[in-house]
Design brief:
The complex is a heterodimer of chains A (325) and B (240). With 325 residues, chain A is an alpha/beta fold. Chain A has eight helices and 18 strands. In chain A, the strands form four sheets. Chain A has a six-stranded antiparallel β-sheet, covered by helices on one side. A five-stranded parallel β-sheet of chain A has the order 9-8-7-10-11, sandwiched between helices. With 240 residues, chain B is mainly alpha-helical. Helix content of chain B is 78%, strand content 0%. Chain B has eight helices and no strands. In chain B, helix 2 packs across helix 8. Chain B is globular, with a radius of gyration of 18 Å. The chains are: A alpha/beta (325), B mainly alpha (240). At the A-B interface, loops of A face helix 2, helix 3, helix 4 and helix 6 of B.
């Protein structure tokens, strides 16, 4: 057996890059072109990739690479000045200038463009950034695609010139002040086989796309969130009650309380292992109510059936959940 | 029963998922056949020492996983989401529990809990560590196959041990069966989440194919017979 390393060691290293130029892409978005200090090519990347940017104020923020993925002279990221920023975007807009060095880690890619016969891209606001190089890749591959891109207003929507370059009747720009919010039913209600849907944008947009895509084949939808999903709660205060059908017993599950723990505290032994929604060993049958699935294992069909739940992570959307216990 | 191969994660394994599943199925079936073969042999000569010897390599696997998982976290952990560090650490804890519980069973059978890699597990252990040293996902790919292969040994073990009244072995393996759903689901999720390049996929397949050829071997009656013969020869040499 090999000896273990005695120190924590990360394979990914921090890399200094120089800001080549900054470009205003909309009234609230600025792009940064980043090159190596010594002029060597930047590392290869694929559409969907992002980098960590270590800001001088101690913050680390993730930004999608949004430039030409075949051009290794520099990387491009784009940053929205967010009024609710906790310091990241405000810092970049106020402090980063051409010639400055910044530290980055990556790239990483958790949002690959998978092979498909057709793509439907849906972007909201700054969510256009990972989509841009995907348009380039899909176009280069000759794969047909449609882009639906929404924003607050035309002046707030970044990279419109770049997008027009690709437009052959397959681009739908939806400035909210002119057209209202994106009519997802229009683009998603007709199920197209072998179409991959890519969505990036604010949480409510992704939640809405997930809802409309429930009838699509499993695996059709690929999304990247700016921030983790807000876990939904059932009743107004987040609590719900569980009726155990075999005994008729009723257990209250408080807001924030884990369902599996509540069952265990009530004296029920439920087989389990990971307590993270991965192993499926705590699977229970649901006889009534609406589960709020938070696991990583049930398929879309299994979730939609409403007949099963992994209580280690999932809860209830309804005020009452009836379990076959 | 839910299929942990379908766990949600990234799409990094998509281009090779058919081959990955084929390797897993093959490894599981090979372990099932080897285990059944051992218990068929054990049925003819139910010598507790043979069962103890059969369990030895299994016990070693548990503690080797503990070392491996902690090394994986130490070496590559900062590339992972925090939840995956937590889950790998949780798996490591469960493997340590298996080492303790199976070790107790082994001692009850008159065996000795291994504190260094048994000769019959050397090839398996070396491959696991070589993969871990070589690539940040290859160690996980190798243990993913190894853990999945072990799933094939459960039913023949329950049947074979149950037939001879070794209820403590059955009880121990029942818990391992539950936990291995978690471990294999986690392995799949980590691989699918962090695999990014064709090079990653090539390393994963290399690790999996290598383990596929090895994982089942320690379950065979021939392996147990060789271990017992080597131990007898060693004891005789000491006596002389």
């Amino acid at each position: 057996m090999c000896a273990e390393p005695s120190v924590l060691e990360s394979i990914e290293t921090t890399m200094p890059l120089q800001v080549l130029r900054t470009t205003r892409e909309s009234d609230s978005v600025v792009s940064l072109d980043l090159a190596t200090i010594d002029g060597r090519p930047v590392p290869e990347w694929q559409p969907g990739a992002h980098i960590d940017v270590k800001l001088g104020n101690g913050l680390v923020r993730q930004y999608s690479l949004c430039g030409d993925y075949t051009d290794r002279s520099h990387w491009r990221i784009a940053v929205l000045r967010d009024p609710s920023s906790r310091g990241g975007s405000q810092f970049i807009h106020a402090n980063i200038r051409p010639g400055q060095q910044i530290q980055v880690v990556g790239p990483r890619n958790h949002f690959h463009l998978v092979p498909a016969e057709r793509y439907l891209f849906i972007a909201g606001g700054i969510g256009i950034t990972p989509i841009l190089p995907m348009l380039q890749q899909a176009t280069a591959a000759g794969t047909p695609w449609t882009l639906v891109y929404g924003g607050r207003s035309r002046t707030s929507m970044a990279f419109l010139d770049s997008i027009r370059h690709y437009d052959s009747g397959n681009v739908f720009l939806i400035p909210q002040d002119e057209c209202g919010i994106i009519d997802l039913e229009r683009f998603l209600s007709r199920l197209r086989p072998n179409t991959a849907v890519y969505c990036c944008g604010p949480g409510p947009l992704i939640d809405a796309v997930e809802t409309v895509c429930q009838t699509w084949p499993p695996g059709s939808l690929h999304r990247e969130r700016f921030s983790p999903r807000q876990r939904s709660e059932s009743a107004d205060d987040g609590s719900f009650e569980v009726v155990l059908a075999k005994s008729g017993r009723v257990i209250q599950v408080a807001a924030g309380e884990n369902l599996l723990s509540a069952l265990e505290d009530a004296g029920y032994k439920v087989t389990n292992s990971c307590r993270a929604g991965i192993c499926g060993t705590c699977l229970l049958t649901v006889l009534g109510g609406t589960p709020d699935h938070q696991d990583d294992l049930l398929s879309d069909d299994q979730r939609d059936s409403g007949t099963m739940i992994l209580p280690c992570v999932s809860r209830s959307k309804s005020k009452q959940l009836i379990l076959d216990l | 029963m839910l299929d942990v191969k379908k766990v949600r994660g990234g799409s990094g394994l998509d281009p090779i998922s058919a081959e990955v599943d084929e390797i897993l199925a093959s490894a599981e079936e090979a372990a099932r056949v080897a285990t059944k073969s051992f218990f068929d042999s054990f049925q003819k000569d139910p010598n507790p020492a043979a069962l103890a010897t059969w369990l030895e390599t299994r016990v070693w696997r548990e503690i080797d996983y503990v070392y491996l998982l902690n090394a994986q976290i130490g070496r590559y952990g900062m590339r992972l989401q925090r939840k995956h560090i937590t889950l790998l650490a949780k798996q490591s804890f469960q493997e340590a529990e298996h080492y303790e519980d199976l070790g107790q069973v082994l001692e009850n059978l008159g065996g000795t809990v291994p504190t260094s890699v048994p000769a019959q597990a050397q090839e398996w252990s070396s491959w696991l560590w070589e993969c871990m040293d070589r690539h940040h996902l290859a160690g996980i790919a190798a243990w993913y196959v190894s853990e999945t292969s072990a799933s094939g040994s459960f039913e023949p073990t329950f049947e074979g041990c149950g037939r001879h009244g070794y209820t403590d072995v059955v009880k121990c393996y029942k818990q391992i069966e539950i936990d291995e759903k978690f471990h294999t689901g986690l392995g799949r999720q980590i691989l699918s989440t962090y695999t990014e390049t064709d090079e990653d996929r090539a390393e994963i397949l290399r690790a999996m194919r290598g383990m596929q050829k090895i994982a089942w071997k320690t379950f065979t009656p021939e392996n147990v017979a060789a271990s017992m013969a080597a131990r007898s020869a060693s004891a005789a040499a000491v006596a002389n």
